[in-house]
Design brief:
By secondary structure, the protein is α/β, with parallel strands linked by helices. The chain has two domains: about 10-190, P-loop containing nucleotide triphosphate hydrolases (Rossmann fold); about 220-345, 2-Layer Sandwich (Hypothetical Protein Yjia, Chain: A,domain 2), CATH 3.30.1220.10. It has helices spanning about 20-30, 75-90, 110-115, 120-125, 140-145, 150-155, 170-185, 215-220, 255-270, 325-345; strands spanning about 10-15, 35-40, 60-65, 100, 125-135, 160-165, 190, 225-230, 240, 245-250, 275-280, 290-295, 300-305, 315-325. Strand 12 (about 290-295) and strand 13 (about 300-305) form a beta hairpin. Helix 5 (about 140-145) crosses helix 6. The longest helix has 20 residues, at about 325-345.
């Protein structure tokens, strides 16, 4: 009996207006590694224009031009993906091996992620491999200050690629790197596109489950960036509409049941404002096998146990990217959980 079909990897390419998405897309599609890639191009407006700038490719191309992918035609995206799967399964189109969605520059990528992650069927047939955001070196500083969509594009990215740096003035790129790292502490801004960028575009960077030891460390971000619980918040990393990133470390292992309570509390109390949560958690029932947790807004991925710690540090590390949630609110909840766990273990 045949098992379930392997998920088709999906990458979302985003970046604010003028960041150079079409130029990069053309370059990437010329790579033989992307020959079996289906591309969905979203545009804003009733008449399609961007597709005229995209060179013809040997694969399939889908143009969605009725409005913004992340809002007015979100339902059309789901219907289109379902239709593409039916046509692929019935061999009515070339059986694409991966799918790339280029969003309009005004798109908030969160609803796009949710359209796949929360759909009972699409979530099984597609696997989010990553979200790539292009950052315009010339205009991004002002854009990030003015537009919440641009801040979310940066905050949620698994890969950040700088464009137009040759047109930026002295010191601009350094300042932009600081602004970007405040929004997304786990993803380094690449000043130059690596030669193998296109061929590694669909390497899974979104989920922790298939990361190598070094990949998992990169997914979580640098350990030295994390601070102990209730450390002084000298750099709150606040940008515009209260988007904030922070990470902290905790010494006390917790039971699986307690971790589930924490995850449910984050989902129920903070879901829409919890842009992303990543965690490597020390577990009381088996301290050799930590747990990995991952949230995107209200989407809570099941806790997974690792076979061993990825490094020498065996403390819990939690990374948050939030909108309008004070750090103290989350730290206080976690501290109360830890105190309860410590008391329960003392009475055994």
């Amino acid at each position: 009996m045949a098992g379930p079909l392997p998920p088709i990897p999906m990458v979302i390419l985003t970046g604010f207006l003028g960041a150079g998405k079409t130029t990069r897309l053309n370059r990437w599609l010329a790579d033989p590694a992307l020959a079996d890639t289906l591309v969905i191009i979203n545009e804003f407006g009733s008449v399609g224009l961007d597709h005229l700038l995209v060179e013809e490719t040997p694969g399939e191309m889908v143009l969605m031009a009725a409005g913004c992918l992340c809002c007015t035609i979100r339902g059309d995206l789901v219907a289109t993906l379902e239709d593409l799967l039916r046509r692929r399964d019935n061999r009515r189109i070339t059986p694409f091996q991966r799918i790339l969605i280029e969003t309009t520059g005004l798109a908030d990528p969160l609803p796009i992620l949710q359209s796949v992650l929360q759909h009972p069927y699409l979530s099984k047939r597609f696997g989010i491999a990553g979200l790539v955001t292009l950052v315009d070196a010339v205009h991004a500083g002002d854009t990030l200050a003015r537009h919440a969509e641009a801040r979310r594009q940066v905050a949620l990215a698994d890969r950040l690629l700088l464009t137009k740096q040759d047109l930026a003035g002295p010191g601009v790129v350094d300042a932009l790197e600081d602004a970007v790292s405040g929004l997304n502490p786990t993803t380094r801004l690449l000043r130059e596109e690596p030669p193998d960028f296109a061929s590694t575009l669909f390497d899974n960077r979104f989920e922790p489950w298939c990361q190598s030891e070094t990949g998992l460390e990169a997914w979580l971000g640098a350990a030295e960036a994390a601070s102990p619980l209730h450390a002084p918040e000298h750099d709150p990393n606040r940008h515009g509409a209260d988007i904030q990133s922070f990470s902290f470390i905790s010494e006390q292992p917790v039971r699986p049941e307690a971790l589930i309570v924490f995850q449910e509390a984050m989902r129920i109390l903070h879901g829409p404002r919890l842009l992303r949560l990543k965690g490597l958690v020390a577990m009381a029932d088996d301290q050799e096998r930590p747990a990995v947790i991952h949230h995107v807004q209200s989407v809570t991925h099941p806790m997974q146990r690792l076979s061993r710690w990825p490094g020498r540090d065996r403390r819990t590390r939690l990374v948050f990217i939030v909108q309008g949630i004070p750090r103290e609110t989350i730290e206080t909840f976690w501290s109360a959980l830890v105190r309860t766990e410590a008391g329960a273990q003392d009475t055994r």
